[in-house]
């Protein structure tokens, strides 16, 4: 259900996110060493804290279930983003990005993808407003994605392959042979050229947009409020960069992550299909009544699945470690 948000609230929200982006840029500009675990932990807590304060504001100042919808959407988007981090790690390794430049690459790539996701969200909201049968498409797509994700198994280096766009950029752009520290351009023999960091940033941005094809339909399964969808995505992306430095090594231990995410996507896909059927005035399938799945139930299911997935993964990792000793 859509809820009205005044232009003033939209403007203030945009200014708030712009201020965070600028703050990030200032921090990166002043940093002369690679990001440490301690710094990453502090910034992750900061971003999660901002999202929590925003959620509290929604619970206090907005009526209805918007606060719960934001929390469920934010957790879902952040969880799906964790799986994306493995691809980021592969990209950084494959392109041999200098450690000091990793933070800058992630920052630019994620900021670019935020604007692209905004366009996706606007298109999705317009499609839903124009025709309720779009829910059938979103729901079926999420169920298909869940099955595909479950069958893929664990992440590996084949999860990232250079597509035609990246190969095209390599042919078109005047690239230097190597990196020039954290610089995006360098002058070679009197000619201004771009460094391979531009290709890496493009790879990060493209990967984020591809991931949005799964995550944006998923959050529309939890709320159809464009304001909630947009802010949940923005908060999840803003905290993604520091999460990369914090749990990069931990990702290999969460071996059942794909299974957990596939269960969540399947659940939301089924929820969307049920809502679509209700919208078509179909309340039963034969003798079986179709349930109404509220936001509290959705949030409990998402949190429970993530907790079980993490506990099972860490337990299996410890068991394998003991057997190998």
Layout of helices and strands, plus pairs?
Layout: H1 7-30, H2 37-61, H3 66-94, H4 99-130, H5 134-152, H6 164-172, E1 185-188, E2 191-194, H7 197-220, H8 226-238, H9 240-247, H10 257-279, E3 284-285, E4 288-289, H11 295-324
Antiparallel strand pairs: 1-2, 3-4
Description of the structure:
It is a single chain. With 325 residues, the chain is mostly helical. It has one domain. The protein contains 11 helices and 4 strands. A two-stranded antiparallel sheet has the order 1-2. Strands 3-4 form a two-stranded antiparallel sheet. The chain starts with 6 loop residues before the first helix and ends with a helix.
Q: Give the low-confidence spans.
A: none
| Helix amount | over 70%
Please state the oligomeric state of the protein chains shown.
Answer: single chain
Number of helical elements: 11
Using only C-alpha atoms, the radius of gyration works out to 21 Å
The proportion of strand residues reads under 5%
Compute the number of structural domains: 1
Gross geometry:
globular
Largest sheet: 2 strands, antiparallel
Strand order of the largest sheet: 1-2
